[in-house]
Structures are given as structure tokens and as C-alpha cells.
Amino acid sequence: MILSIEIVLHMLKNRGIAFKLIILITLSSSLIFLLIFTYNYYASKRMIEKNVEENAKNLALSTVNRIEIVLRSVQGVTDNIACFLENSTSKKEELLKFLQITVENNPEIYGSTIAFEPYAFDKKLPAFAPYFYKENGKIGLKYLQDVFKYNYFVLDWYQIPKELDRPIWSEPYFDEGAGNIMMATYSVPFHKNVKGNRQFMGIVTADVSLEWLREMLLSIKILRTGYAFLISKNGTIISHYNKELIMNETIFSVAENRGDALLREIGRKMLRGESGFVPFRSIVRGRPCWMYYAPIPSSRWSIAVIFPKDELTEDIVHLSRTVIFLGITGILLLSIAVVLNTRSITKQLREMSQAAERIGTGNLDIELPPVRSGDEVGKLTAAFHYMKTSLKEYIEKLTETTAAKERIESELKIASEIQMGILPKKFPAFPDRTEFDIFATIKPAKEIGGDFYDFFFIDQNHLCFVIADVSGKGIPAAIFMAVTRTFIKAIATPGISPGELLTKVNEELCIGNDSNMFVTVFCGILDTKTGEIMYTNAGHNPPLIIQDGKQVKWLEGERNIFIGAMEQVNYKTDRIVLHTGDALFMYTDGVTEAMNEREEQFTSEQLEKDVIDLQDKPIQEIVDGIMEKIVSFAHSVSQSDDITMMVIEFKGSDK
Amino acid sequence: MYFKIRIKNKFRLRTLFLFLIIFNLIISTCRSDELNKITFIPHWVPQAQFAGYYVAYEKGIYKKYGIDLTILKGGPDSSSAEFLEKGKADFAIMWLSTAIQKRSQGLKLVNIGQIIQRSALMLVAKKTKGIHKPEDINGKKVGLWGAEFQIQPKAFFKKYNLKVKVIPQTFSVNLFLRDGVDVASAMWYNEYHTIINSGLNPDELTTIFFYDHGLNFPEDGIYTLEKNFKKTPSLSCAFVKASIEGWQYAFAHPDEALDIVLKYMTIAKIPANRMHQKWMLERTKDIISPQGNKSQIGTLHQSEFLRVAKEMRENDFIKSIPDFDSFYRNCFTYAEK
Lengths: 655, 337
What we know:
The structure holds two protein chains of two kinds. Chain A is 45% helix and 23% strand. Chain A has four domains: 2-48 and 320-348, no CATH class; 88-209, PAS domain (Beta-Lactamase); 370-421; 424-650, 4-Layer Sandwich (Phosphatase 2c, domain 1), CATH 3.60.40. Chain A has 16 helices and 23 strands. By secondary structure, chain A is of the alpha+beta class. Chain B folds into two domains: 4-118 and 218-336, Periplasmic binding protein-like II (D-Maltodextrin-Binding Protein, domain 2, 3-Layer(aba) Sandwich), CATH 3.40.190; 121-213, D-Maltodextrin-Binding Protein, domain 2. Chain B contains 15 helices and ten strands. In chain B, the strands form two sheets. In chain B, strands 2-1-3-10-4 form a five-stranded mixed beta sheet.
């Protein structure tokens, strides 16, 4: 479930706005419509059902009243006969006349008898029961003692009122003699006072055709197929539109057949003379219905009116169909409107996205869609226009600046090349001098750095050599370096010691050095005849002495402050003598501070070790070897500072 | 008034016309001359109480046994004993008590198959009348049918020393339903269900089966005249066997059996209620082959015979008890001889 929702969401995610809007609006309006529709449907249904109960009740009660009027009139006539009999001592002829007239004058009475107890009418007659009845428009007479062989006393119409000592309506029955019509008999017991005792004399009956009743019930049409039915005191179906049920089924046999305990309970309530409004499944087809049942008080039968549920709600169903049709049409129209509207919006958006793509490729001269409205899309379009213009301006400016920057950079590069160009790079530098050898290399960093080295003869036998590192980087460092180098070269005159040289250079550099730049310098002067080196270390990394075939050690000596930072500094000169085969290894901090990926430095310890490993090699190989080590140490980390190394080896005087 | 009574008593007192519905077993042209033409009358109108015979007829079982049968319509005006006596029917269904009475009165009839083993006759009372056990009936109004239907109740009243007011009961239960009597007679398979389907619940009723009070009177049996049996014993026994086979088929195929019974009820213009007939068929099965009864359907046990006969003699229904061996012919042992 969640997965499928996610899939739908995912599908939605990449669809167009129009699609999303249609889905969203259609779904939500459908949902709202459905909710309103459902509420409306059930609310109307409830209202109708409420009315149905009232209608059903009225219909049932009015029908009961119509039936009661007839039954009560028959009861009245029969009661009158009984009353007459209790208070008269008529002769046979008078009695017969009275009974005949009664049957004649009461159209609702089909036949009537006065059935006496044995010897009650005549002490010689064990049974006497004259019966007048209508036949083909005439009145006929029969004697029931003949018909029933002097034993009508056990029949229901006689026995039940006798035993109960009260008038009673019989169960309805079909009378074939009268043309197979349904009848019911009303029986009234009558008595006489014999010596103060109330003595039972016999039964008066009136037979009533129930055809009018059945016709009346069948004429009740409720909705299209609703109907009324009637059950007797035994639950026997007396009237129903399906003739097969009549007298064959009781409401209880129907319930038994269905296994419907509820129906049986309804049946029992009906027989108890209760009334009520209940859901009911129709007897024949089992359709869901509403039923109102009410008793017919005099005969204690029960009438039921049936309202088929589906027909009750037929109008609602029709209305609902129309509403659904209208709803769906409305939602469709809404969708179309949404489609049209979103299309016009997304058309602009699409145009803009295409324009944006082209702008992305650098084409700032394309035509943007015009601003058509003041809505969000219009504002977006306007913003696009502004963006395009701004971009264009910016790019123009950028082009200009870039051009300027490029020019400066190319000039700087030239300066740097000139700078590097002025360093001696030709080795061997002095091919005609055999008493020493010198080798130097510089590997500049990407940015222009401030390292430099230099060596030159002051006089025939004195070689001045310098390795230095200017603080900072870039053009200022380069210029400062050029200045320093120029000063050193200019000031180095025969007989000057390195200390004096640097003291003077420092004085010169300090003049107007507002930017507080400084240089670390190692400066030495080699006496090529003796191998003696006078040197001054102005804040520079101490060089290594490689003593031919013996050992490598750090050059000791005074560490003066770097030059250019402080005026009035007196730089001291130290002295060392190189023996034949000894060499001095100088470098800048670009060597020891070279970094690898783990941000570890190469370190002076590593340098010492590597120099020891290489000490027997020619000086150029030592420098190249160290360079290789640094490169492999740094691996992919780009070089951040110039790497400069210089070695000078004393080979001894020829003399 | 004349005609309505038989409608009122819808299950029993059906017709006062003496019309017979004759079910001709005619296979029109190819009718076999070898078939024995015989007539048979049940002791009441068509209903599931006689399902076995109608089913055997309808399914051609009688023909299979070489019998070309005509079933006569029984009813209140067609006494099966009378039909047998006057030779209007070759075979008849009768209660054992009725047959014993007839035999003791000199009618030479023989029982050739005792179909119903267990008495279905019972008394029914409403619990609201305070009747829960036999003793509660004392002093009450009790509806009783006539003749053989009174033997068991009277023996029962004697057994429990009950003084009751007997009210003649017809074949309608309306007197009971309207409280005209406190206790009514009923057949388990018939009136009892009619009462239930008139809206009284079983738990509202106290039922007393005579069977449970040592008064089991086997009911429906097949009878023929002794002289007929002697003439063609194999034909008589073929009829019994075919009938029993019919019953077995009816019990095995109750829906089909009900269809058949309802068909004959419709032909006889009797109100037909399928649920009522279903109940009747099920109960008839219960009393034809009661649970635990292992003996062959159709067997009459001498002990049962003597119980009925003795009760009848004690209540003056008969003067002497007929000889069992001349009264009962066991077709199953007979055929083996």
C-alpha cells in the first residue's frame, strides 16, 4: 500500500504541472462531491423512511378501520339474534322467519344458523340447527343436524365459542358450496335462565364472505409492487397477491422455510395483537421491504402493509443518478478548464525553460517571451528579463576584468621568467675552474615565489654564493627578491666579509620597506685556493656539510636575524674550511616543509638522512636525488612554495 | 355451512364427497398382462405419512415387483377397514389397534407388514396453563379424538390416576389454540407441527408422548384379508416388499419424495405446505425406523402386539385377544420358507 502510494508519488514527481493539477483538482473535487453526495443520499433516505413509517401506519390503520366497520356490523346483527333468543320463547316458525329476514336484510351476511344444544330447542330433538343461506339470489334453508348427522357439536364454529363462553370469529375457510369463496364465521353463544341458572342453549352464527376483504387488500397498491397481506389468528395467510400462499402457508411456515427466527418473532407479535414497523423480506421474492403491521381488533387477525425498500428510494436513486451525471460532467468541465489554464501557464514556463537552457549555453542574445500578465508567471518572466540583462552586463564586465587580469598575469609571468632568467642556470658554471664545483636548482611554485640563489666571483679567488627566501609571495616578493639580489651583487666588493655585505644590504633594504618584507639569507664567500668559507646565516635554514667520505653534519654558526626587517643590525661572519672533497648543501624551507596528503612535512631529519644516503654521488645527482624524494613524498599534493637547493664542493687547489 | 367444515380441518377432514382419485398405472399401449392388478387404500388423505407408497408407485417399484397398483384416496369418509372388508381394496393401511379390534370382531384380516413402530400420538399443553408433567393434567379439559385414539390416553389417565374433563376433539387444533381445551391430542408428525406453525414455540409447550409412558402402540401397518393372503401369498409379500423399498427410497431422497407427495396432494385438492410435509416425512422416518431399532422394517413383534391388545381388553375395546400367529404373517420369514 505504502509502496504503491510511493510509486504514484514518484510517478507524479516527474510529471508536468498540468498533469499534477488535473489529478489534484479532479481527485479532490471528486472526493468532495462524493462526500456531499453520500451525505445527501443517506439523509434523504432517512427522511423518506421516517415518512414511510407514518404513511404505512396510516394506511394500515385506515384499512383496519374499513374492515372493522364490516366485521362489527356483522357482529352487531349476530349479537342481536343471540339477544333476541335469550329474551324470547318463540315458536319454530317465528324463529325461522326471524332468521330468514335477518339473512335477507343484511347483504354482508352470506348465511346464518341458530344451532341448539341437544334437546334445548325441543325436548324431543337431540339436535336442531336451521341454516339460512343465499344461493343464486334466493334464500335457501338447510337443517345442519341432517348435514352433520346430529353431531355439529364438535365443530369449531360451535365448540370453541361454547367452551370459551364468548363470541368468536372462526379461522377463514374456503366454501366450495358457495362457489369456492373465502368465508369466516362469527359465532355467539346464547343462554337462558333456567330456575335462576344461566344455562348454555346454543350458538348463533353468521357466515361472511371475505372476498370483499381480499379484493380491498389486493386493490391496495403501494408504490409499484408494494402490497398488503392479512394473516389469521393462526398466522395463516388469508390474503396475499400470490394465491398459492393463501391458506397453504402460515407466516411461521414461511419463517421455517427461510430459517428466519426474526420473522417468526414478528409473526408472534402480530398474533399477540401488537403493531409495529419492521424491516421485512418479502414472502415470495425475499426482497428487502419495510412492513407495518396492525391488528384487526374484532377478529384478531393482523394486517401488514409492505413497502419495498428499493422502490421507496427509487426517486432518490433517480435523483442521485442525475446528480452523479451532473457531478461527473462538472468535474470533466473543471478538468478541461484546468487543462486550458495550466497549458497557458506552462506554455510560458516551457518557453522560459527553453530560453534558460539556451542562456545556459551562453547565448544571451535570444528573444525571451514577452511579459503577458502581472501574475506569478508574469513576474517570473520579468525576473528572467532582468536576469538576462544583468547577466549580459555582468558578463561584459567580467570579460573586461578578465582581460585586464590576464594581461597582468601574463606580464607577471614575463617578470617571473625574467626573474628566473637572471639566476645562473648554466652548469658547470665555471668550466675553467677545477678547484670547486657548484650546482643549484630552483623549482618554482605555481604562484610567483621569492626564492633565489646566486654565485659570482668577487675577485680572482673569491666566489660569493647566496641562497635566500623572501617572505610572502607574488609580485611584491619577486620585486623584493630582485632588489635584494641587486643589492647583494652591487655591494659585494673584493675584501668584504659576508657579515659586512649583509649589514649593508640590510641597511639598504630597510630604507622605505614599509611593507615590512624580509629575506632569510645564507651568504658565503669561498676562497678557492684554501677552501676557506666565510659565511653569514641571516635567519636561514642551516646548510649541511658533507665531509668527503666521512660524515654529514649541520653547519654550526651564528644565526643572525633575517635581513630587511630591522635597521642597525650588525651581521656576524663565521668561518669554516672545506677540505678537498667536502661540500656544502644549502636549501630553502620549500624542501623541509614540503607536504604530503596527510599534511606531514618532509622535515630536516628526513633531508639529513637522504643526504647521507646520497653523499658519495656527484653534487648534481645529490640535488636531483633529493628533488625526486620530495616529489615522491608530496605525491599528488601541489607544491605550495618554491623548492631551491644549492651545493658547492671544494675539490682542492691544483697547486 | 355444509362445506366449510372440511376446509376448517384442513389436514384431515378434507372432503365429504365420495370421490376417488384413481391413479391408473397405465403404460398405455404396452401394458403387460403379467402384472397383477390390485388396489390399495391408505387410511387417510395423501400426505407424507404415506410417502413410501406414493414414491414406490411413482418410481415404478410396484411394477418391478409385478404389481399393477391403483391407490385409492383415503380420508374421513373412506374407512380403510371398511374398504378392505367390502372388498373395495385389496390392501389397506390401518392402525394396529384398529386391526386388532376388527379381528376380534370377526373380520379375518391379517397384518403383513407393521410399518410404523413407534407411536406418534401425544398430548400437548401450554405451559402457561401450569401443565409441566402428567400430574398437572388432573382436572383439566382434555381434547380427545374418537375410537382408537382414546385407548392410549385413557390408559395413561388410569396410570397416573388423573380425573380429566374429556372434550371431543375434531381434526382441528383451533380449540386448543383458542384455549377451549387445556390439553390437546396431537400426532407428532402432524398436529404438533401445525401448532408450532400457528405461532406457539416448542419451549412454550409441554409434550407428553405415550411412547415414553410405557404405552407404545405401533401405528400404521399393511393389512389384507386372510383369504386373499392365502390365495396369493407371494403377491401380498411382493406388495409389502415394494412398499418398504418405496419407504427406503423416500428416506434416501426426501426432496424427491416431497415433490411426489405434494403432487398427489395437489391432485386431491388438499392444502399443501411443503414445510409441513417435510416435517411429517422426517418424523415418519423417526417412527418407522426409530433409533436403536435393528429389526427389519415391517416386523410386528409379539410383545408389542400383546401390549396393545391387553390395554384394549382392559379398556373394553375388545373382549378377547386374537391369536398372534393368525394375525401376523411375516413376509420375510414366509418368503424364505
